[in-house]
Amino acid sequence: MWWFNRRRGGQRSEDLITASEIACFAYCPEQWRLQSGLGRPAENQAALDTGTRHHAVKAAAERVAAWSIRIGLVLVVTAVVVLLIWVLSR
Predict the structure, then answer these.
(1) Rounded to the nearest 10 degrees, how much is the dihedral formed by the CA atoms of 46, 49, 50, 55?
(2) Which of 32, 66, 79, 87 could pair with 25 as two cysteines, CB 3.0-4.6 Å apart?
(3) Which residues have C-beta within 8 Å of that of residue 31, sequence separation ≥ 6?
(4) Are 59 and 52 spatial neighbours (Cβ–Cβ below 8 Å)?
């Protein structure tokens, strides 16, 4: 498949366009031209790094929440099974 074209050493192929590049172009074509066309780094790298850390923390919180929900469901099912066994054994 063409989007998996990779050069030696894991370098990205020049014909591959990432979702980040599309979003950048949709938001501001001039920003995309400066970053991709001219190869200049972003001037707000500190803000970009802060956003990356923020999203990593949010992703960790989402994983904890998902596990908490799963544990809660297991506890509810276990309680219902124990209650049914107790009621049927009387």
Answers:
(1) 160
(2) 32
(3) 24
(4) no
Residue 41, both tokens: 């780094």
**Size of the chain, expressed as the number of residues it contains:** 90
**Strand ranges, E, within the chain:** none
Contact 43, 31 (CB under 8 A): no
pTM: 0.50
Give me the DSSP letters along 8-21.
GGGPBPTT---HHH
Confidence grade of residue 19 (pLDDT, cut at 50, 70, 90): confident
**Band of pLDDT at residue 13, cut at 50, 70 and 90:** low
SS3 6: strand
Phi, psi of 43 (to 5 degrees): -80, -20
Mean pLDDT value across the chain = 83
